[in-house]
Design goal:
Layout (H helix, E strand, L loop, with lengths): L2 H27 L7 H13 L15 H6 L4 H35 L1 E3 L4 H14 L6 E5 L16 E3 L5 E4 L9 H16 L2 H14 L4 H25 L3 H12 L18 H9 L5 H26 L13 H20 L1
Parallel strand pairs: 2-4
Antiparallel strand pairs: 1-2, 3-4
Helix pairs in contact: 1-2, 1-4, 1-11, 2-8, 2-11, 5-6, 6-8, 7-8, 8-9, 9-10
Length: 347
């Protein structure tokens, strides 16, 4: 892939995301308002997946007029754009990965094996029984210490680390009045992340963030997907809770469990608000599937309208086969020429 094609493709997708994002936001606030919060996450996941569709799907709108101004000075401006993009990807990826490695090393150094902590071992066994798990990831607990804060992993625990081989870290210092049931709820929530492969999902979303590090829509969609993963883990944990959703909600309030995702190697998102997590537990979703279907239809309609408008705008432009940037464009030009010849012969 040439430099020009890569740069124009990246800009094309960026502009199309700016068109689709307001539609998705309005759908989230209207059609999906009473749907489950996880369904809203699916909507924003579809917005991100739009960037994976081939450029040639909209043959006449993959290089809009605004982009032709950018590329009008030749390959020099595109080269600078590509250079800035690559530098941003490398800088954010390197800094985030270094931070991730330091955090994981710090978690490992300040923790011990699960067998050395009886209370957490009992909670893990009960959580495994309730989730019907036969195997669990490596679990470590913060090392006990005479110091007040030395036995705590701080804001990093409880958490799951690792996309391929997840590891679970649990704190040793607990809130006052913590019970065995509270421990079970904490383990249920974190094991739900493991069973749902949320760390792997977060890594996939992170790839979109690295490629489109400059795009606010991608970062907003990633934050919505982060919230959806937390709500999903809450739902699994509440369903398996010894005391049901009400008891699990009390644990959320007592522990002030906020979203932590140390497997992310980019910037940390704002923690998911506790009030919204409690609301998702007590407020049942209504008509999630059909509402999601309507939202998807609206998104497709918006994309079709965008392509139709661009095609109409580009009807007067006749490209040559050498100027066509993809197989769809070239096929379109061939069929258009064949149709013109056929119409001329009929006359």
């Amino acid at each position: 892939m040439s430099l020009e094609i890569w740069s124009v493709m990246l800009l094309d997708r960026s502009l199309q995301l700016l068109w689709i994002a307001p539609v998705a936001w309005l759908l989230e606030r209207s059609v999906l308002r009473r749907a489950g919060l996880r369904v809203r996450g699916v909507l924003w996941g579809l917005v991100l997946l739009r960037t994976l569709l081939p450029v040639e799907l909209h043959a006449w709108f993959e290089a809009p007029a605004s982009l032709r101004v950018v590329s009008g000075n030749g390959s020099s401006s595109l080269w600078w754009f590509a250079l800035i993009h690559v530098v941003g990807v490398v800088a954010i990826g390197t800094a985030g990965y270094s931070r991730h490695v330091r955090r994981v090393r710090d978690l490992t150094d300040r923790s011990v094996e699960l067998d050395r902590h009886a209370a957490w071992s009992a909670a893990v066994r009960e959580a495994m029984r309730r989730l019907r798990l036969r195997s669990v990831p490596v679990i470590r607990v913060a090392a006990d210490s005479p110091s007040t804060d030395a036995g705590s992993l701080g804001d990093d625990a409880p958490c799951v680390v690792g996309a391929v081989r997840p590891r679970l870290f649990l704190p040793a210092c607990l809130p006052a009045g913590c019970t065995h049931e509270d421990r079970v709820h904490v383990v249920l929530h974190e094991l739900a992340h493991v069973e749902r492969r949320d760390a792997l999902r977060a890594t996939v979303v992170l790839a979109f963030q690295l490629v489109f590090w400059f795009h606010p829509v991608v970062w907003y969609a990633a934050s919505r997907l982060t919230a959806a993963r937390e709500y999903g883990a809450d739902a699994v944990a509440a369903a398996a809770s010894p005391g049901g959703a009400l008891s699990y909600g009390r644990t959320l309030v007592a522990w002030r469990m906020e979203q932590r995702e140390p497997w992310l190697i980019a910037l940390r998102f704002r923690p998911v608000r506790l009030a919204r997590r409690i609301e998702a537990l007590v407020a049942p979703a209504a008509g999630g599937l059909w509402r999601l279907g309507i939202s998807c239809a609206f998104l497709v309609a918006a994309q079709v309208a965008l392509a139709a408008h661009a095609s109409q705008a580009g009807e007067d432009q006749i490209l040559s086969l050498d100027e066509a940037r993809g197989c769809f464009q070239k096929r379109y030009l061939v069929f258009r020429a064949m149709n013109a010849i056929e119409q001329a012969s009929l006359r």
